[in-house]
């Protein structure tokens, strides 16, 4: 797999101290931050060699090793290339300097990327409506052995409804804010997703992207939570392993229906959204069962719904999860680094990108959520021209997914992630199974 690399040397934080045979050596490096911490990676440690020199009978002299020399820029490039190939990335960007702010990045975007175009907005609604209708027709007419293809298409098409509601929640669909709330609520109904609860939680995800405890999207498992009970351990291994591609179902259920998770000034709007969802379930589901039976409900609603959650889970994983992308405490967190360098651009087959309205072009969306989905590619091009060497990019591949599912598990301050296989090997057979059976193509 071809890799494009941004030239940069590794930066270490503060003085590094080594003690060899009782002697302390201090190497001072420039301070800074990096997505890849040199001390967390395999290092070329000098071998301590012993020389025996006969001076007098019974006495020897031992030579002491020299202090570790700092890594050269060429070492950094070689290591980045190795990581790029190992993880399934096209490019691993270099570290964004600490003095760069999010406003600096936004100011390089052309003003046109923020413009709302009603024609383009409603075109996206037309694309999702017609592709979803076509999917339902395919399900109705397909023989049983073609149903998986029909479900895959329909699940991808209904994901487009989510992206439309997503634009509405970010106030980038229409200048009419009441219309946005109505369209967003209706777009989420086939997914039985409550619009307002999701909007409130998603806004916090953007405000706290890759912040260790505050981000409301997925983040690494904390060791103390992992150790709470044997049952929890086994459940979380499966959740972050084999069933992770549909784990957004758990996120949907846990985060969006519990009123205690919302502020008092949000409760009113949350209740309206929940009422809409429950009304759809109370009216829509019985109508589907009445017309086509329970099997029809599974065929026409449940399977496309699972397909949507596959994409919801996959997009979320790929956008913010990689061994070299850190989650940081609120004290260390840097918004520019989190949004530009902590978000991944990933290319998919073009039909998926069309049906999902370019949600995969995700870096500009995190730089500014006010950019409509139909302007994301224009914004991405501007970011590449000005900040390209700091960006992480990939094309969807099996190695990328395998890395996420088998490596990115438990939080570790120095290494970002450690695998369940290292933390709890006795219950990590699901992870070992994935290593054996998942393809490793990049």
UniProtKB/TrEMBL annotation:
This is Fatty acid desaturase domain-containing protein. The chain crosses the membrane at residues 145-166, 178-195, 235-255, 267-288. It comes from the Eukaryota. It comes from Lactuca virosa. Residues 143-390 form the Fatty acid desaturase domain. The keyword Transmembrane helix applies. It holds the Pfam family FA_desaturase. Signal peptide: none annotated. GO terms for cellular component: membrane. InterPro entries: FA_desaturase_dom (IPR005804), Fatty_acid_desaturase (IPR012171).
């Amino acid at each position: 797999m071809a890799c494009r690399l941004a030239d940069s040397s590794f930066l270490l934080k503060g003085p590094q101290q080594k003690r060899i045979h009782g002697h302390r050596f201090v190497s001072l490096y420039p301070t800074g931050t990096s997505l890849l911490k040199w001390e967390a990676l395999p290092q070329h440690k000098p071998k301590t060699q012993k020389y025996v020199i006969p001076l007098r009978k019974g006495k020897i002299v031992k030579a002491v090793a020299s202090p570790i020399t700092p890594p050269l820029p060429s070492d950094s490039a070689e290591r980045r290339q190795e990581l790029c190939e190992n993880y399934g990335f096209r490019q691993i960007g270099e570290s964004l300097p600490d003095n760069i702010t999010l406003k600096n990045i936004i100011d390089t975007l052309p003003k046109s990327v923020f413009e709302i175009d009603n024609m383009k907005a409603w075109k996206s609604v037309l694309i999702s409506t017609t592709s979803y209708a076509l999917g339902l027709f395919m399900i109705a007419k397909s023989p049983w052995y073609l149903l998986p293809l029909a479900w895959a298409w329909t699940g991808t098409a209904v994901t487009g409804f989510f992206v439309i509601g997503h634009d509405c929640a970010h106030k980038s669909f229409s200048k009419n804010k009441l219309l946005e709330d109505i369209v967003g609520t209706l777009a989420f109904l086939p997914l039985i997703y409550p619009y307002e609860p999701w909007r409130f939680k998603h806004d916090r995800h953007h405000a706290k992207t890759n912040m260790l405890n505050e981000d409301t999207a997925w983040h690494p498992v904390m060791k103390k939570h992992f150790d709470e009970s044997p049952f929890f351990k086994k459940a979380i291994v499966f959740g972050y392993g084999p069933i992770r591609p549909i784990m957004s179902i758990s996120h949907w259920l846990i985060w969006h229906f519990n009123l205690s998770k919302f502020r008092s000034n949000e409760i009113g709007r949350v209740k309206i959204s929940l009422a809409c969802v429950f009304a759809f379930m109370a009216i829509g589901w019985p109508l589907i069962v009445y017309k086509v039976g329970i099997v029809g409900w599974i065929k026409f609603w449940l399977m496309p719904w699972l397909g949507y959650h596959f994409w919801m889970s996959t997009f979320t994983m790929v956008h913010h999860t990689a061994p070299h992308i850190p989650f940081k405490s609120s004290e260390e967190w840097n918004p520019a680094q989190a949004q530009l360098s902590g978000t991944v651009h990933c290319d998919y087959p073009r039909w998926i990108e069309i049906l999902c309205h370019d949600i995969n072009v995700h870096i500009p969306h995190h730089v500014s959520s006010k950019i409509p989905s139909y302007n994301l590619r224009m914004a991405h091009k501007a970011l590449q021209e000005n900040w390209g060497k700091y960006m992480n990019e990939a094309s969807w591949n099996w190695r990328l997914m395998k890395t996420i599912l088998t490596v990115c598990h438990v939080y570790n301050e120095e290494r970002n992630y450690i695998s369940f296989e290292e933390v709890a090997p006795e219950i990590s057979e699901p992870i070992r199974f994935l290593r054996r059976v998942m393809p490793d193509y990049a």
